[in-house]
Amino acid sequence: MKFNSADHIQDLQYFGEFGGVNPSISDSSTYTFLSAKTMFDTFEGNADGCYLYSRHSSPSNLYLGAALAAMEGTETANVAASGMGAITAVLLQLCRAGDHVISSRTIYGGTYAFLKNFTPRLQIETTFVDITRLDIVEAAITEDTKVLYCESVSNPLLEVADMRGLSHLAKKYNLQLVVDNTFSPLSIAPAQLGADIVIHSLTKFINGSSDTVGGVVCGTQKFIDQLRNVNDGASMLLGSTMDSLRASSVLKNLRTLHIRMKQHSRNALYLAKKFESDGLKTVYPGLKSHPSHVLFKSMMHPEYGFGGMLTIDVGNLENANQLMELMQHRNLGYLAVSLGFYKTLFSAPRSSTSSEIPEKEQIEMGLSDGLIRFSIGLDNNIERTYEMMKTCMLEVGILSQAGTEV
Ligand SMILES: *Cc1c(COP(=O)(O)O)cnc(C)c1O
Questions:
Q1: Is the pLDDT of residue 405 over 60?
Q2: d(CA 14, ligand 1 centre) in Å
Q3: Bridge-partner residues for 126, per DSSP?
Q4: Does ligand 1 have an atom closer than 6 angstroms to the CB of 84?
Q5: 353 lines ligand 1 (CB under 6 A)
């Protein structure tokens, strides 16, 4: 694939107010005008380069948006105060009462809860489907369907969406294909594969330091203008605005994303292979045993690997909890939700991040009690980490001395 998002980020050039190599941080909520006429034009969105009020836009947020648009290869982007701030604004902008959404059934718990419990109050209905089955997706389309929603790599089951196939369906039925690419920045570029709108929770890999929440919507200038419209734009009116100070901080972290993703992926692949050969039920898109391994390969930018997320199934919640507590005790990572940190993070999604999903549906989608989701860290010596993790597994009794699952 020719498109290399990291190069596009590198190619951006910034000069701060005093010639600094970083753009200056805009430390104002409101902006002055020399002429009243220009103020009116700015409010109407007709004065390029002028700022009115920081919920509308601010220089720092525009810099970060431009870098993320360069990364996804879209015309432009709009940052938000959180991933959910980006997701909810997009769905409410695209749908009105009577409209229908088709969504993958394995998505982030918050997004699931929004579509399942919140949008029906606005008469927006959602059908949840197995996104890996294009025939099922197509059969769910009605004349009211407006949006196809999925995650490129799903949370927490690591199912992979066939972006080209979904985009083909979206074009055929005139739908908007909206993709949450939080799990696979740089390795997959959904807009290059036909997605109309790409969303990220910046909270995870992109910021990478677990010190803030943030989100972004990448899309066409036309759609982003709609989101920002002062009269009926969801981003503008719902008010999920990122602070300038945070925007500048996320931008600085974004610049090392390509190096971090390579290390996350390298470490995750190493552990996934080891865990699998030890006899643990391991899910990682980089393993040949993953049902969408070949599909992922056909979409990915190989340099950045298969990402930092993997799951193992240790049979039951008690095993999972014991193992996670022991691994934390040995300083192999933190028992915490979220992902994309320098340390490994692990949690049992069924009782945490996916607890919004009713039990019956959890079972249907294969979300079992003993599932542990790992966000693999940037460990310099992953061989040592593996040996220490294996010792924990032996002590908890998940592996026997022979190295096979008991
Ligand atoms: C965390 C996450 C979100 C929500 O993002 P916030 O920044 O927590 O609002 C959405 N989608 C995915 C895949 C996530 O992991």
A1: no
A2: 29
A3: 101
A4: yes
A5: no
* Residue recorded with tokens 């990122």: 242
* Ligand 1 contact via 242 beta carbon (within 6 Å): no
| Cα-to-chain-centroid distance, residue 352 | 18
Average pLDDT value over all residues in the chain: 94
Distance from the alpha carbon of residue 213 to the mean position of ligand 1, in angstroms: 9
Q: What is the CATH number of the domain that holds 122?
A: 3.40.640.10
Pocket flag, ligand 1, residue 82 (CB < 6 Å) = yes
Q: Report CA(375)–ligand 1 centroid distance (Å).
A: 14
The H or E element containing residue 216 is strand 215-219
Domain count, the chain: 2
258 contacts: CB under 8 Å, gap ≥ 6: 6, 9, 186, 303, 304
Is the residue at 405 inside a domain? no
Instruction: Look at residue 124 in the predicted model and tell me its pLDDT.
Output: 98
Span 315-333, average pLDDT: 97
Q: What are phi and psi of 357, to 5 degrees?
A: -85, 125
Question: What are 260's two structure tokens?
Answer: 């971090």
> Structure tokens of 51?
């700022």
Q: Give residue 307's domain range.
A: 258-396
The two structure tokens encoding residue 187: 């390795």
